[in-house]
Design a protein that fits this description.
The chain is mostly helical and about 150 residues long. It has 5 helices and no strands. This is Glycosyl transferase CAP10 domain-containing protein.
């Protein structure tokens, strides 16, 4: 790994470790109706904090993407890097991203871990295709196959 890639991976890991909840919330939404926010103080506080987390993370994510763009201009990487699951677009607040574990299964999850496993199986994009890299749409483009991460051996 060259110096630029090492530097960028450390920057991303710092971003990920500083904002884990905002990252998770960017792909798993818990809608809180306005009536519930008005009637329950906890929900109002949670909703406000969620907006603040998203705003803080969004600003830092944009700065990170600017560094990636600078790396492209400097020739450290090409445009294909944005097709890597590592750089998947995080949904904007108005985009549909509601998460309902168990909808595709006959039984409800017993706990949160089981619900997360179900969600990862149903929608691999929610965890950036980390469990199924070869299913990522970018890996279906012939010139990108095995460019970022080799396919699993069978």
């Amino acid at each position: 790994m060259t110096g630029w890639y090492r530097y960028m991976s450390h920057r991303y890991l710092g971003l990920e470790s500083t904002h884990p909840q905002a990252l998770w919330e960017s792909t798993h939404a818990f809608p809180i109706p306005p009536a519930q926010r008005r009637s329950e103080r906890f929900m109002q506080t949670f909703w406000r904090q969620q907006k603040q987390r998203r705003s803080r993370f969004g600003a830092r994510w944009k700065n990170f993407l600017k560094m990636i763009l600078s790396g492209m201009i400097a020739g450290h990487c090409d445009l294909d890097i944005l097709l890597d699951p590592f750089f998947l677009h995080y949904p904007r607040p108005h985009e549909d991203r509601v998460w309902y574990p168990g909808l595709g299964h006959s039984n409800d999850p017993a706990d949160l871990l089981e619900a997360l496993d179900m969600a990862d199986q149903e929608d691999p994009w929610r965890n950036q295709f980390r469990n199924a890299y070869w299913d990522h749409p970018g890996s279906q483009i012939p010139r990108l196959q095995d460019k970022f991460k080799p396919a699993p051996s069978s």
